[in-house]
Amino acid sequence: MLKENRKKYHHGDLKVALIEAGLAELEEKGLEAVSLRSIAARVGVSHTAPKNHFDGLRGLLTAMATVGYHRHAAEMQRGVEDHPPGKARLDAACNGYLRFALENPELFKLMFTSSFHLAEDPELKQAGWASYGVLRDVAHGLDWDKANASGGPWRTEWMLWSLVHGYAMLLIDGEIRREDDGSPPFRMDEIMPDFGYRPDVAEKRPDPFQGQRRIED
Amino acid sequence: MLKENRKKYHHGDLKVALIEAGLAELEEKGLEAVSLRSIAARVGVSHTAPKNHFDGLRGLLTAMATVGYHRHAAEMQRGVEDHPPGKARLDAACNGYLRFALENPELFKLMFTSSFHLAEDPELKQAGWASYGVLRDVAHGLDWDKANASGGPWRTEWMLWSLVHGYAMLLIDGEIRREDDGSPPFRMDEIMPDFGYRPDVAEKRPDPFQGQRRIED
DNA sequence: GCCTCCATATTTCCAATGTAAATTTTTCTT
DNA sequence: AAGAAAAATTTACATTGGAAATATGGAGGC
Fold this sequence. Notes:
The structure is a homodimer of 217-residue chains. Chain A is mainly α and 217 residues long. Chain A folds into two domains: 1-53, Arc Repressor Mutant, subunit A (Orthogonal Bundle), CATH 1.10.10; 55-201, Tetracycline Repressor, domain 2 (Orthogonal Bundle). Chain A has seven helices and two strands. Chain A has a two-stranded antiparallel ribbon. In chain A, α4 (87-103) crosses α5 (105-111). The radius of gyration of chain A is 19 Å and the shape is elongated. Chain A starts with 13 loop residues before the first helix and ends in a 20-residue tail after the last strand. The structure holds a DNA duplex (30 and 30 nucleotides).
């Protein structure tokens, strides 16, 4: 998937090996503790070997974040397909969003902290758009703000995204936590307001990405 | 305010001087680029001088984050006092939340990234609670989820906090942005749903902080 | 006023990190 | 087979956070 055209050099597929090792180090040690040298050592190459494949540490983290967005999108999509359009599908997608964030907290923080990666990287941007696109698709037709329609066509999308994202962030960082243990996993409907599904507005909104959205490159 | 009892040693008030220098460096260079050495150099002391006042870099960042929470709470409170309880007051507090985040993005990220500071620091926790308390107070009596009342007594608070916090995070990181420039500042009511104010439920909810909330120490 | 004590700050040193440059090794092309 | 190109290593360097030993200067007792 991320493999290069040429097959076997000294290492074989150092690029993907570094990404995988980086992802492992990331969740083991945390975002602030990952280092180029430890990732390289994990793969068994010298600490300057990654330079042939990535633009420094930031470049490697960018590639890792890109993989993160792909998995993020897949995790949302997982629950979506089992439900018809409407509230159930929205819940499924949001629970996927939360599930990914809580199971991959360091990767999630990496994805959404632009100072750690190269935010202008085309592949990263595309993967991010694709991930947002999943959420956007399930929000399509859901109207949260019937009573107050000002604020532009993306208002509901932004509101929904803000809600899920903020909940994920506050949970990851420990700002929101349950007192009692043995509790069930956090789910989106714990804080989700009552949405209405209005098929009559389902076709009225423009696509801000204009077909640029796709998972695979 | 944060000044110590003793007044003038070699430097005078190195502790607060370091915090102020740290806050300046933070917004100038960004969260990932601040260093103990550069902060110490800015004040004009050796790079190990901070060790007498803080537990390493993490300790200094913790003190900076604590100041950040105080300012955050003050910024929210600023708009609150001009409005009566209800939607207007809520909007004012949330706009304060957003304003602070957008004007102090690096400090905001520091506050809400536990891997950068010492999350168990008592002063930090207290300041964080105080900040949340402002938001909680304006949410008191607002009922967002009339139709669906499951999820515990903090459901509306968590929902509101998630919404504001997620919007702030996505704006700071550039995930949400306007296409056209010369645009007005982001405000919360752009994504805020229609709240209802119900004085009849205003006294029913327990205080999870039980009086621990206070701005000044 | 002098002297001791101790908080404060400095100097020195060290390991770890990211990056650059030059060099070596391996693979590909012709 | 030979030269070119790619991949990886070696060496070097500046910066960082932190530890340890040392110096400094004010506070309080006499």
